[in-house]
Amino acid sequence: MLNIILFGPPGAGKGTQAKKMAEDFNLVHLSTGDMLRSEMHQESELGLFAREKMEKGELVPDETVIKMIDKKLDEHAGATGFIFDGFPRTTAQAEALDNLLEGRNDDITTLMALEVEKNELISRLQSRAEQEGRSDDKDIATIENRIKVYNENTKPVMDYYRGKGKYTPIDGMGSIEEIYGRISEALKSLS
Ligand code: AMP
Question: Shortest CA distance to 161 belongs to which of 113, 110, 114?
Fold first, then answer.
């Protein structure tokens, strides 16, 4: 099994790269952000509950996303590996993920961290707002808040896996193809 956490701040390109990785390496792409947006569009109870937090750029509660991931791991029990995109975002989520995988005799292979400069993140998020119309990409205050939440709550996840010797930094600057080239080289050496 190849279980990769694709990690990085908002705008690092996780979703774009995860889709390519899933296709080329036959992995299941699990994005908690995509799952929550889909619930929001369906106006489900979960979606309505998550909307307010998402629109402010804050995190939805750990239990909510952990439950979603647990369900997805069951749905894809025969998979040859997973890419976790946008999850885990807190150390509590990381510990829960490790437990979920351990219960399935599995574990995280590595956390791949996309490293991107702040100015570049902001300009990527602003152009995504125009292309995809995501409400949380629209104004600079929400973007800044998401970067702050990332620095305060999510970055510790990197140290958590680094402490376990499961850390692969990737230069996230450049074109989509250049970045993907670096990711796929790293993946080949892991698989
Ligand atoms: P993303 O598409 O990964 O940028 O996620 C969009 C928004 O969904 C985030 O700003 C959070 O409000 C929420 N979200 C996504 N994944 C998580 C997670 N693992 N934990 C908490 N909130 C999340």
Answer: 110
